[in-house]
Write a structure and sequence with these properties.
single chain; 199 residues; 4-stranded antiparallel beta sheet; 8 helices; 15% strand; binds flavin mononucleotide; oxidoreductase
Length: 199
């Protein structure tokens, strides 16, 4: 599917068909997800993929009963490792020569050491971009999706066994839509949103 078509046809779907996604399809989707950009290539996202019905049913309860969580073929809980930047950062640049690699690692350490706000902000940025990659890749694979923040973050974290230096950022559910969504809520005009050179 053409990228423009994927962007246009993506909608937040609230009702899904009973459909099983194959392991290969899920793998393919996640292979695309990890091509998303991250600052300094720290790849701070972590993805928990959930397909078992009993687990999706429990997550649905933790999502205040939003049915798309139980109905979707795949629930992805997007998380971030806040400390990925200091966990063997050499591996984020293993394909480049030593000199520029050392330069980048020095930059990473300078930027992140003692900067918990940056750790948190980058977690949200990275996962937001990855979520859009997932949704557009899903669209190209003939699937639909819904990004989600309407759930109990603490309880979902407990449910997935979130490690202490990680946070849950959002969820994306993926499946085959059961019915067409209502027309878009109403996009604002470019004139209200885009400013040439300055506000
Ligand atoms: C970060 C984020 C969180 C969202 N959380 C939910 C959610 O919990 N439940 C839901 O039904 N839709 C959720 N949405 C979907 C939005 O309502 C939807 O994107 C918006 O109304 C625009 O519709 P569209 O995605 O179909 O263009 C979320 C969207 C974003 C970007």
């Amino acid at each position: 599917m053409d990228t423009f078509d994927a962007i246009k046809s993506r909608r937040s779907i609230k009702s899904f068909q009973n459909h099983e996604m194959s392991k290969d399809e899920i793998n393919k989707l996640m292979e695309y997800a990890i091509l998303s950009p991250t600052s300094y290539n720290i790849q701070n996202w972590r993805f928990v993929t959930i397909t078992k019905q009993d687990l999706k049913d429990k997550l649905c309860v933790l999502s205040y009963g939003q049915r798309q969580v139980a109905e979707a073929s795949l629930v992805i809980v997007l998380c971030a490792d806040l400390k990925s930047w200091e966990k063997n950062p050499e591996r984020y640049w293993k394909n480049i020569p030593e000199e520029p690699r050392n330069f980048l690692i020095k930059g990473i350490k300078q930027a992140y050491t003692g900067n918990s706000k940056l750790e948190h902000d980058q977690a949200i940025r990275s996962c937001g971009i990855a979520a859009q990659t997932i949704m557009l890749a899903a669209q190209s694979m003939g699937y639909d999706s819904c990004p989600m923040e309407g759930f109990d973050y603490g309880k979902v974290g407990e449910f997935i066994g979130l490690p202490p230096d990680h946070i849950v950022t959002m969820m994306v559910v993926v499946g085959k839509k059961a019915k067409e969504p209502a027309p878009r809520g109403g996009q604002l005009p470019l004139s209200e949103l885009v400013f040439e050179d300055h506000f």
